[in-house]
Amino acid sequence: MYDGVLLTDLAGRIMDWNTGAERIFGYSRDEMLGQSPEMLNPPEVAAALTLSIQTALAVEGRWTGEVRLVRKDGTEGVCESFLVELQDEDGRRIGAVAVNRDITDRKKAEREKESLVEQLVQSAKMEAIGTLASGIAHQFDNLLTAISAYTDMAKTTLPPTHQAVRSLEKVEMTSRHARVVTNGLLDFSRPSSGRQSTLNLSQVVLDTVQMLNRVLDSRIEIDAKSVAQEQTWIRGNPTDMQQVLVNLAVNAQDAMPIGGCLRISLTNRMDESGSQSKRHAVLVVSDTGSGIAPQHLSRIFEPFFTTKPRGRGTGLGLPIIHRIVTDMGGKIQVVSEPGTGATMTITVPCCEAPTGAMQKDMRLPARKSPGHVIIIEKNPHVRSIMTTTLRGVGCEVRPVSRVDEAIDFTAKRPTQSNLIVMDLDSVTPKDFAKLTSLREQRADMRMIVIVGTLSIDLKRHRLEDCLLLRKPFDMPELTELVEDCLNSLSNQEGGNNGE
Question: Which CATH fold would you assign to the domain 193-354?
Answer without folding.
Answer: Heat Shock Protein 90 (3.30.565)
